[in-house]
Specification:
alpha+beta; Hypothetical Protein Pfu-838710-001; eight-stranded antiparallel beta barrel; two-stranded antiparallel ribbon
Length: 375
Amino acid sequence: MGHQLLLTSCIPHNNFTQTVATLQALTGSRNPQPIATYTILTKPRNVFKPKFEPGKVNQIEQFYMKCTTIWNDDASKNLDIAAPVMPGTSDINVDRLFSGKEVKHWTLQISDIPNAGKNQVSAQNFYESTVVHHHTSVKENIPPKPVSSGDVPPENAQPENAQPEKANPEKANPGETPSKTTAGAEHDVIVISPSGTPQQSATKEASMEDVVDLTMGDDVIPEEAKPEEAKPEQANPEEAKSEDVQMADAPSDEAAGESKDSFLQFLEDLGYGVVNQYWMKGIRFFQGDIVIEIFKVFIRDDDAPFQESKIKLSLLDESNAFQIKAYISFPKGTSVDLISKRTKDLTNLQATLHNLFELGVPDRMCMDSRVARIN
């Protein structure tokens, strides 16, 4: 969560050159930072209706979410915001965002309604997160499963056709007491040496056909008594480390580009649907911790004929006016004293630029993005 202090203004297109020159002299930056972003507005699909209980205030609200990424196609690079955009003569045709091969990073933001009251600046909280890679995939090609380079059986594993090992009574000494496994072995099986008459020895040998000797002793079963199938290959520990599982190769750039459209699927899985979109082009200055942005907002021209791979844009404000924002953002947990100091910095900037343009507090109701209020 973050906190933001904000002042806004608007200037006509004729004052753009004078405003840029003044801000260059004020900030000491001759080359302002360019701004070119594409934003989609999303709305929750499932409406949340909390149960009404007398005497209880429901503080759970649903908000519209703003998803922003860069706008870097040829139309953005060739667009000169210093020149006015005239209808019919200045055609701006942008590429369809989800038709290219480039996977973009998205910044998701939900803003609370600004604080009420007579404030010098607009103050509001916001929640923001940047999605570098969304894990929803639309690719049809499934990567192959990991393939083992060698069939090295475990140390204690036995083949399917191996017969259980039998205790050999001939190797044991008659009259011996029961002996447990040696210390350090990880087994609790007790091997009892048979004693007595040969008939009793045969009977006990038959009764222990289902018991497997796990003592790992070499003198229990002679080599000639073991079947050939019961001798698994003993892998060298050094070779076992080198013959590890071979992982599948990383997908190529083309395969990674096939997941370009999965952000819409990501939003759908998140429970949001797209309701609107807009493009923004402008420049940005920095004065200490204050960020000053001058930009124009473009929307889709619904009256233009359909194009297969392009979208025609038009100005949101047909008067060619520029929008101005001056704001400071704070991380969560910022002290009140620092916020008060930065509020004073914004009011000082407002007084400095008073003769150039008027910075003011925007209407808080126009910045309310709660779903219940807009509906």
